[in-house]
Specification:
The chain has 14 helices and twelve strands. By secondary structure, it is α+β, with helices and mostly antiparallel strands. The chain folds into four domains: 127 residues, no CATH class; 110 residues, Beta-Lactamase; 57 residues; 153 residues, Histidine kinase-like ATPase, C-terminal domain (Heat Shock Protein 90), CATH 3.30.565. The longest helix is centred in the middle third of the chain and has 64 residues.
């Protein structure tokens, strides 16, 4: 019964390993080369023994250089026999009658073997130098790849992928002891490798399976195992493997340092935000509290003979209390936005209603100012959180009122452009320098007025930006020094199917 072809090949491969077959082919080729030289020099181009000896010697050196010492040695022995049989008298026999021929035979054999060894050693050293250079190039490429890892992805996963790509490994597995995760790379799998990786990471052991070509080594940092690396199909010297493990350890530790730095920076920024916020609110609260206390003291200490004066003082108390409430609202919304907890209670609303409420609440601040309002008729509804959107529009109006002289005109325009309701707050003030415009929406950034006596927490525009973005809208600035500033809010209109 005949076996399938692929089973026959597998049986042959098991009985005759690839290395043995290759060696046998090389030996036969070496014998064939000696035979060809013998035929040419004895039949086609008759030469003397000296010329034949040099020809054999050159062939043996070539074999030693190209293949190795085994092929060259076998060729040397066969060449000595051919030299004796075909070129030394009596020709056609292995008998040596002249003692000088014995000396020549021994000298030729010694020269051929020594020269073969020297040539083979030179080839081996050259190959070792090339291997070391290739290892250095690969290690350098890996170190560069580790420096360029993406912070958004796990470092261990990227390192395993880079090892598989750079070293040409069909399978790589990297175990990170801190996270307890194993990341694999390469087109092939390594079954049952998890246990060996954990053992190497916990005990610092080394494992090598020559049959399967798998190597597992501990990844150490400062003498302590921080993980384990498994590779298959890419044998390398111990020094290169240790250097590779050290690079992996550095990459993992770099990721730890980056994560720690990120946490520290986040904590620092959070603490800085809290400190700045508390400082700004504390200063802002002093002004209305002072006014409230002065007005309340005047009401309590003055006889009620002039009701008009009492009414004016109570109006101050009411306005400053409203200002305090506004500051608390800003701080609350900023804290929620920073925590990612901004929630929208949307409802259909006309833009003119929102603008009207803002103007009503800012009546006292806008008193005596030139304020023009232009709202186009028939504007479509927008779906917004009324309280938050009023706060956003209020920030733009407050910004114009605070940073422009009282003689400057302020204009509020609302219109419909490309299925978006556009609200513009424009002033004729000094404008905003170009270098400040890129940061004008950052928290606590005050630009050129950072050291001016103008009140404010520096959170207003940042709050307005986050509110508008939460509504899938856009906020922008147009300004040039000496020509005023224009802040615009663009909000999508409510679709008719949803309005119905």
């Amino acid at each position: 019964m005949d076996l399938p072809i692929h089973l026959k090949h597998d049986a042959v491969a098991r009985r005759f390993p690839y290395g043995a077959v290759l060696t046998a082919v090389r030996l036969l080729s070496a014998l064939g080369l000696v035979s060809v030289i013998t035929f040419i020099l004895s039949r086609l181009i008759p030469v003397n023994a000296l010329t034949a000896g040099f020809s054999y010697l050159i062939a043996i050196l070539v074999l030693a250089t190209v293949w190795g010492i085994l092929e060259a040695t076998v060729a040397s022995l066969v060449a000595v026999a051919c030299l004796n049989f075909f070129f030394m008298p009596p020709v056609g026999t292995f008998t040596i009658t002249d003692p000088q021929n014995w000396v020549a035979i021994v000298a030729f054999l010694t020269t051929a073997i020594v020269a073969s060894q020297l040539s083979s050693h030179a080839k081996q050293r050259a190959q070792e130098a090339e291997d070391r250079q290739l290892e250095m190039e690969r290690l350098y490429a890996l170190s560069r790849a580790i420096l360029l890892t993406d912070p958004a992805q796990p470092a261990a996963k990227q390192i395993a992928y880079q090892i598989a790509q750079i070293f040409g490994c069909p399978s790589v597995a990297l175990y990170d002891r801190v996270s307890g995760e194993t990341h694999c790379a390469g087109p092939e799998d390594m079954p049952a490798i998890e246990e060996k990786l954990q053992e190497a990471a916990l005990q610092g052991t080394f494992y090598s399976d020559e049959t399967g070509g798998t190597t597992v080594t501990a990844v150490r940092l400062g003498g302590q195992p921080v993980g384990a690396l498994a590779m298959r199909g890419a044998p390398m010297p111990d020094t290169a493997l240790q250097a590779l493990a050290n690079l992996v350890a550095i990459g993992l530790e770099r990721e730890r340092g980056r994560e720690a730095a990120s946490r520290a920076e986040a904590a620092r920024q959070s603490q800085e935000l809290k400190s700045t916020l508390l400082d700004a609110i504390a200063h802002e609260f002093k002004t209305p509290l002072t006014s409230i206390k002065a007005a309340a003291s005047a009401v309590l200490s003055t006889p009620r003979e002039r009701p008009q004066d009492e009414r004016e003082l109570l109006t101050v108390v009411d306005e400053e209390a409203e200002r305090l409430a506004q500051l608390v609202t800003e701080a609350t919304h900023m804290a929620r936005i920073e925590a990612g907890e901004i929630r929208l209670n949307k409802e259909p609303c006309p833009i003119e209603t929102l603008v009207g409420r803002v103007l009503e609440k800012r009546k006292s601040l806008a008193e005596g100012r030139s304020l023009d309002v232009h709202i186009s008729g028939g504007l479509p509804l927008i779906e917004v959180d009324p309280e938050l959107m009023e706060l956003a529009i209020s920030q733009l109006l407050d910004n114009a009122l605070k940073y422009t002289p009282s003689s400057c005109r302020i204009e509020i325009v609302a219109e419909n452009i490309d299925d978006h309701v556009l609200v513009r707050v424009r002033d004729d003030g000094p404008g905003i320098p170009e270098k400040d415009q890129a940061r004008i929406f950052e928290k606590f950034y005050r630009g050129r007025n950072a050291h001016s006596p103008i009140t404010g927490t520096g959170m207003g525009l940042a709050i307005a930006r986050d509110i508008v973005r939460a509504h899938r809208g856009d906020i922008s600035l147009k300004s040039s020094p000496g020509h005023g500033a224009e802040f615009s809010i663009s909000l999508p209109v409510l679709r008719k199917d949803r309005a119905a």
